[in-house]
Amino acid sequence: MGTRELILLVLISTQTLLVSVQSQTNSLDFTALKALKDAWKNIPPSWVGTDPCGSKWDGIGCTNSRITTITLASMGIGGQLTGDIASMVELLTLDLSYNPDMSGPIPPLIGSLKKLTTLILQGCSFSGQIPDTIGSLPQLYTLSLNSNKLTGQIPPSLGSLSNLYWLDLAENSLSGTIPISNATSPGLDQLFSTKHFHFGRNQLSGTIPPQLFNSNMSLIHLLFENNLLSGSIPSTIGLLSHLEVLRLDRNGLSGNVPLNITGLTGVHEFYLSNNQLTGPIPNLGSLVGLNYLDLSNNSFDVSTFPSWYSSLSSLTTLTMENTQLIGQVPSAVFSIPQLQSVVLRNNKLNGTLDVGSGTSNQLQLVDLQNNSIGAFTDRPGIRFQIILSGNPICDGDVKTYCSPPQSGPPYSSPTNNCIPPTCSLADQASSPNCQCSYPYTGNINLRAPSFAGIGNSTIYAILQNSIMSSLNNFGLPVDSVSLSNPTRNIDYLVIKLAVFPSGSDRFNRTGILSIGFALSNQTYKPPPIFGPYLFGASPYKYFEVATASSKLNTGIIIGAVVGGFVLVVLAILAGVYAFRQKKRAEKADKQNNPFAAWNPDKSSGSIPQLKGTKAFTFEQMKKYSSNFSEVNEIGTGGYGKVYRGTLPDGKMVAIKRAMKGSMQGAVEFKSEIELLSRVHHKNVVSLVGFCFDQSEQMLVYEYIANGPLKDSLTGKSGFKLDWMRRLRIALGAARGLQYLHELADPPIIHRDIKSNNILLDDRLNAKVADFGLSKAVGDPDQTHISTQVKGTLGYMDPEYYMTNQLTDKSDVYSFGVTLLELITAKQPIEKGKYIVKEVRQRMDKTKALYDIQEVIDPLLLGTTLKGLERFVEVAMRCVMDTGAERPTMGQIVKEIESIMQLAGINPDYESSSTTTSATYEGTSQPFTHPYGDESLFMYSGVFPPSSLEPK
To answer: Are 870 and 862 in contact (CB under 8 A)?
Structure first.
């Protein structure tokens, strides 16, 4: 490089540095933000200078010099939100949640922010009325004003928010009636796109207007608990076909429960307790997906125990305290398979209590206090708590079941195989990884969980893993999370959450802002069994103290320019030096290269060409899996064992460790990880890394929380899948397989598609997994791959078996069998019968549901199955005898999308975490992990063709 070129480069670099110190923030936005800053106390220390965008003020996000996001959750900010905010006309997001010292009224000028999509002010101390100008924000998607001190009526203008998805006004002091539209004013009945009405814990009065509900609404959560509502329950609630959670408890509702409320077949949580309802106990036998039922403390007609309970096979909690029940409790009620809790106290039940011999293995509590029971059949092996105090049987008796209920020890997350230290500094706590630090804390309020007990450690482990996994997936600096002290208040299950920092003993402001926003904005979605939640955070007080040196001034800016000039010169000199020493540098790099185990001189092949995949050492694998401890073993099979592991950043992974006898050659192993490292799709399990060290071969995958589809279909996972969810799973798996066939480079034939290799993440989205038998298609013109037959009995393409010619249509056949499995919940070969043959013989296209009701999963029967016939047709086309007759995966994706649209479901509804709503279904059963290996059913050799029976 000549002198002239060097000078030119230095001048260009210096000019770039000078430009970079010029203001990057629009002057109007800065003026408005400065006015807010002057009105607030305890602002972030980074808020200095005149350039919020260029200086990256904490909590301020910019696009092209305009401030577009203000996210300041848990910053401890105090003061009022002034009308100056109205000048930031490009603002999209305003989140001031969990700042209890933010007070005063919400300024009406907030209605000037026409581009605002997210307004979150929850957990503050705002008072006064909700400005009706909020109704003039046409793009508003999320409105969370809950947990403040707001008064007055709900503004009718909110009915104009046509794009609103989330409406949460709970835990205020709102009063008056629920606004509905009329000739001159909008109302909440016009919110057709809104999924969430969260209005609990206010002082709303009057009746629930029948006009509030209509068949065009998309509501899935209707929460009116703990208000002052009166009158009858409107029958129009029965029009809410998408409803999943209904809470009308703790009001003054009266009259009969409308008959058509029994048409809400998608409801999982149903609360009508603590009202003044009369008439007969409603027949809820049609609500076959019901998990949680509470009809307590009403004035229903005197009645014997209702018989419709036998239809509720998904029920976990039955609470009918003080509902005028008489007679004997049938023993069959205790054999409902998922039942956990039965509370029937303060009735007039009598006779002999016999829980029977076939009680649910989930049962934890039977509470029959204050009834008239005279005898109890005490059977051996009863492991659940029975409470009969206040019954004649307990007069003078001292047996255990005659004692008042005893609360168990408080729950707290266990440590991760380590000894907790004694933290010497005030307010520090020991994390699950036994590190002393300052956690971010708050309470998770579960508003309608589908499980009963508060002492089930398995339940909390699922929630803990889900939170940890999600926060790490968002790239947040979290070491671990812990849960403790679950308690039930009047309305909700409250659990204390502590989030511990990674790499330091405290969070910086960016970390807290990001975690707070993920929880306030509902970006984090818990598994369905936990239902809708609300997080209430404590302000974080443990940030590192900013020093004077962090504050910019003109002298520092000038110094930065001069320093930058020197750095540019040094960088150029270093580059020239590096160029001249290239060979020496390459040699030194090779000695420290993690791929040095690939030695071309030893036939190991060249260095792997990987995309986003990390090489781990054996020592790292030992450390992350706690020395491959049995506690972390989550699967085993012919390949070897699979262990749960935790990376230093807190991300959970699954480590698949090959046994010595099953290891591939270095070339084959390299080819496999090169192939998997190219696979990047939201519906395909991703490879995190590998280990090829000390004669070990390991693959490191992302950890998938809810296991294989097979476990959910057979009931092992505890998650019940309704028709809508099964369609989404089918579409997700189809899209993953389409990606492998049509978009991966090179294309991949999976060769072992089955329900055990389709995994469900924490939001029950499908991911294709296990590429141990996969084959890459090297030549795009190649019609097939001649290879030894491998796969799983029942799913295997008969054409592939007969010819040894593998094609992408072989995967299509296996996928078709999996679609039939989704419909029937049966294994492909069960009791000697092949599901393809069974469906083919029973199909009659002239009859409803093609007359295959006998093989349809009983959990689906009794519900609306829109599009099932077309779904069956797609499955049967997939399992045609020859590949030429089968559709491609791209065609299948379009077919399933069309079926979902026919069923009124948006196929892309779950493409974004911010627009996804969990279906809030399921139970608390323990689940097996996805990385087990069905080695007993794997085929890689010769078997009699009769075992397939693909006719």
So the answer is: no
Give the DSSP H or E segment for 738: helix 723-738
Residues 741 and 807 both lie in one domain: yes
Return the closest-CA partner of residue 902 out of 859, 857, 934, 871. Answer: 871
Strands, sheet with 348-353, edge to edge from the N-terminal-most edge strand = 303-304, 325-327, 348-353, 372-376
Domain count for the chain? 4
Residue 785 is predicted with a pLDDT of 75
752 annotated active-site: yes
Q: Round to whole Å and give the CA distance between 695 and 604.
A: 13
Residue 564 has pLDDT above 60, yes or no: no
Distances (CA, A) of 164 to 75, 210, 218, 763: 27, 21, 11, 22
CATH classification of the domain holding 438: 3.30.70
Which entry of 752, 761, 797, 933 is annotated as an active-site residue?
A: 752
pTM for the predicted model, two decimal places: 0.61
Pure H helices in 521-642: 554-580, 582-591, 618-624
Q: Are residues 738 and 695 in the same domain?
A: no
Cα distance between residue 66 and residue 52, in whole Å: 10
Same domain, 683 and 750: no
**Residue 879 sits in a domain of what CATH number?**
1.10.510.10
Report yes or no on 531 lying in a domain.
yes
Residues 77 and 50 in one domain: yes
In which domain, by residue range, is 168 found?
A: 27-295
pLDDT per residue over 503-559, tens digit each?
A: 889 999 989 998 998 898 888 888 878 888 999 998 898 986 544 344 444 444 444
The tens digit of pLDDT for each residue in 624-640 reads 988 888 878 877 766 77
Give 893-902 pLDDT, tens digit per residue: 999 999 998 8
Whole-number Cα distances in Å, 579 to 219, 584, 586, 765: 64, 10, 11, 49
